[in-house]
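Justification of resources, computational component.

The compute hours requested in this renewal are based largely on the per-chain cost of generating structure records like the one below. Each record pairs the submitted sequence with a full structure-token output. That output is archived, and it is also reused by downstream analysis tasks.
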Amino acid sequence: MDHNILKKTTLYDNHIQLGAKMISYSGFSMPLQYISSLVEHMTVRKNVGIFDVSHMGKFILKGKTSNNFLQYLTTNNLSNIKSGQAQYTCFINNFGGIIDDLVIYKISEIEFLLIVNAVNIDKNKKWINHHIINNNVDLKFQDLSLKYSILSVQGPLSLDVLQPFTNISLSNIPFYHFEIGKFLGIDGVLISRTGYTGSEGMEVYIHNKYVESIWNEILKKGQSLNIKPCGIASRDSLRIEMGYRLYGQDISENVTPIEAGLHWIIKFNKQFIARNILQKQKRDGIYKKFISFVIEKKGKIPRKGYLLKDKKNYTVGTVTSGVFSPLLKKGIGLGFFTENIMDKNNLFISIRNKNIPIKIVKLPFIKKFISY
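The structure output for this chain reads:
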């Protein structure tokens, strides 16, 4: 793999110096793990870990009609949040499929920050620009993806590490809210109480020219709290324990938010693209069903693409994400039923041509914001 043709975050050299194993991820060279993904996972659950997630897309949309514009392009209802709040939502295409899932930060009544998946940056830009041009709206749209970095500090001790660097009272920021202020003496830093791990945490949005010094200071300050840099592998196992969807695996343009079990981010009390399609799907109830399951048998781990079977050995679904849960000490998975299942008590996963029993459970697999 030629890492020279991949994009690199500003912290690439820092990851190399820390001994990270680098992989190709969403067009970037990203750290898979530093020492052990299992250790990094449990660090986030018990203490505090830091992730470089600067590969994520960062857009600014500004203008008097920006709120109405985003209301039409997304499924959730932006009128439900105020300035200083964030909202999880998705862009959908004309057929109801998910173009991308994203988080929208409401900076003001006329300005929004959109955090999108790295793999979908260009696709999202084309989609937004297409609608700006088609609707002839007066909006300022900027792609700041390669100018700004994001550090995600996650774990029950995350606020203890970050608080000395800012005069913002971090414990007073509610979940999915943010403030903009000084951080390490730098003005205009956005600090949000968000993350992709299910543990307590904050995300820091900072200009590239400052990120290396901030990364180093956080690692230095966190030494006494056993902070560790964490990579893509632990980020994946952490998010699966919470049942968070990953674009390109659990969701795609071939999956609607209803099929993905994301009913809560669809608000039918407003107009949006493909609203009628989603309404019909919800009403008729005919669609593939998103599921979550555990494997009680020791040592069996579900993987993407594994088939789900019924007691007659018919294929009834597929796994989209799977991992060994370091907390539960068992295999956990996400996927879809492609068939209507009458008996959910006799289901199996095919692993190396052997049918292993699975148990359907509700998400999340673990409780969030609890120190383990």
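The mean pLDDT is 96. Residues 253 and 296 are 32 Å apart (CA to CA).
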